[in-house]
Amino acid sequence: MPQSATKPFIDVLSGQRQAIPPMWMMRQAGRYLPEYREVRAKAGGFLDLCFNPELAAEVTLQPIRRFGFNAAIIFSDILVIPYALGRSVRFEVGEGPRLEPLDDPAKVATLAARADFSKLAPVFEALRIVRGALAPEVALIGFCGAPWTVATYMVAGQGTPDQAPARMMAYRHAEAFAQIIDALVDNSVEYLLAQLAAGADALQIFDTWAGVLPPAEFARWSIEPTRRIVEGVRAKVPDAKIIGFPRGAGAQLPAYVEATGVNAVSIDWTAEPAFIRERVQSKVAVQGNLDPLVLITGGAALDRAVDDVLANFAKGRLIFNLGHGIQPETPIAHVEQMLRRVRG
User: Fold this and answer.
1) pLDDT per 10-residue tile (average), the chain, 344 residues
2) Can you say whether the dihedral through the CA atoms of 265, 268, 273, 279 is positive or negative?
3) Which of 2, 138, 212, 268 shows its CA 20 to 30 Å from the CA of 155?
4) Dihedral (CA of 11, 12, 14, 16) sign
5) 222 vs 227: CA distance, rounded Å
6) Distance from CA of residue 10 to its chain's centroid?
7) What 3 state SS string does 192-218 have?
8) Is cis: bond before 187, omega within 30 of 0?
9) How far apart are CA 50 and CA 222, in angstroms?
10) CA distance between the termini of the chain
């Protein structure tokens, strides 16, 4: 696994605070950049872009060239695992993903146990291209969706406001739901290991919908599957650097950190700073947590918000990021303003 002591992002994950926090943004390769929109138009569909190694590598590198971030994250999607498991996955313009719903135990019985990883070969090739193009001090992040979040899309066949279909299924048919989770755990481990082998320096597990779960269900469907993934990856790569992002976890973050063994957690903008400092950042690095809407706003409000993140977390191990993905309407000038503010 290519690593270097000269990568500030990896240094923070390894336990070393940096005077100027390393920075990247979730969804940094995206629609707010004109150069991304140009490539996206050329690629055809969204999955066509994900599975074209040259184009996926190009959009991964665009924000690094423009902003000099400390880390690049490979351009892909959390739903490539269901796709590799043989499920139909498509992206409707303006509507998001559409899958065949796995909404009853009989349908779950048709789910393949093992993914066809040849379908994901373009992702690994894109990682190799990006790794070869990045400066040695810039880290490369691979990722997957957490089993709970990916399962919510697989059960409903699409995103829903509160992921009620998956929550109901987990209550009604816990055994069948666990079968989906188990398949996602096993295949995510293999997928993440292949990303490390292709050149990723670190990994992020996105649990975007963790915050809709009550505590007992959070422990069962968010913490435990993530713990198994971390354990599975580290069984083969003991020093693998892994960031968890259980969005909306709030007061359950300390239990998540303790149980999963992640090197860092990404926190959203609603996290209470003193609680995070005392109960979370005292144990692991934190990543975040600027509100993406204040980045759209810009001006004095953005300066104040950046200063707040730094005042709250920069005395400890911090990776400066947003509390979720950058929005398409974000002005590029505001990203530049944020960078200047953080880097002084």
Assistant:
1) 71 98 98 97 95 98 98 98 97 91 97 98 98 98 98 97 97 98 98 98 98 98 99 98 98 98 98 98 98 98 98 98 98 98 97
2) negative
3) 268
4) positive
5) 9
6) 16
7) HHHHHHCCCCEEEEEECCHHHCCHHHH
8) no
9) 26
10) 32
